[in-house]
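Regression report. Comparing outputs from two consecutive submissions.

Submission 1:
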Amino acid sequence: MTGLRNRILCIDDSQDNCDLVDFIFSEAGYKVQLANSLQEALELIQTNQYDLCLLDIALPDGIGWDLIPKLRSIDPLLQIIVCSGDVRPETYEKVMEAGAVAFLTKPIDFDLLVATTANCLHTN
């Protein structure tokens, strides 16, 4: 892909979180698509190309870290940032071993999220 990399898939079961991510990143010039479940995310990733995925762990139809290898098999270059309120060390280890590039804790520091996103998109 040439030029600015700017397509983000946000997977979170909280519509408020999704709406906030959409607002913040749309204002910054990113194109955001939202999914509220693992199944919805898989459907979107199979028909669209994304540069980055923001992924929650606790989803209504499964655990977010189970989705990481599936996302990677579809698009090995996809950057995945996990955003979760689960701050246990074993959760961090699982998501990083699964292939996430960053782990941010909720409540999200949106300045940190934007900076982490920009770093992931423009250094890969």
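Submission 2:
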Amino acid sequence: MADTPEGAIPPAPAFDPEDPPPAEVVAPAAEAAARAEPVPATAVDLHVKLGPLQDPDVKRPRAAQVWAWAMAGGGLAGLAAWLLGEYALDWFSPELISASAGGRMGGPDAPTPDTTRMAAVKNAALAFGLLGSLLGGLLGVAGGMIRPSLRAGLAAGLVGAALGMAAGASASLGVLPVYNRILNRPGAADAEVLWAITALGTVWGAAGAAGGVAFGLGMGGGRRAAAGLVGGALGGLLGAVAFEMVGAIAFPLAATTQPISESQESRLVARALVALFVSAGVAAFVAPTRFEGTHEHPA
């Protein structure tokens, strides 16, 4: 081999065609292009990420992550609400209400239409109070786990559980007696489905709003809590519309226009639909929110 003059640049080593260069010498074009071109911070990943959201370069929460946690929390709340509701289905009986009134409402062995309606309203208030409490508690925890912060999730869950119980029960006690009086009017049966959607939509919307507030509080920020409130209330109303449409076809003999329908299957569908629509409404309104205090990078 000839000597290389001093100060001259040595020639590049030649590679034998039969012996290709090592992979670390020549990178594939696609891999090099991927390294050279950064992925935008706001791009939506194609796979569900359950990791933290506090990436300083991310301007919005990952939509897939918000939807996954919201649907999981809401779905579990709907199932638990149905199970507990079946256990406490007839917690208040007309006889018990009459007896607690000291016999002034017909005596313990003589239930009247008034005591029967009162028992139905109280049982519905208990059932929908449990629904609101479970939606608020579990959606609050789900929102906190997106951060992820178990402490924030538990705090939001406790607030949501109390708020949901109060919202579901108070809305039931305020709306359902009025609904019963409307149904007793002549000609009200012609618009019974519409009145049922209005009554149940109001009650389920109140419970859903509490769940949405808890989810937003768990994720952090008053803006998310407000967005969750709107999404949860709208989801509860749409859940009532869906249930009355499905119930009229699938459960024609289950009295689905009543606050608590008469078959186990219809009650399961009711809880499933309200939980599904509340969770979807909350996720749809909360996912587009931006992180507060995030600075834009210069172009």
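Expected: both submissions complete independently.
Actual: both completed, but the second showed a warning that disappeared on reload.
Relevant detail on submission 2: Confidence is low (pLDDT under 50) at residues 39-52, 54-58, 293-299.
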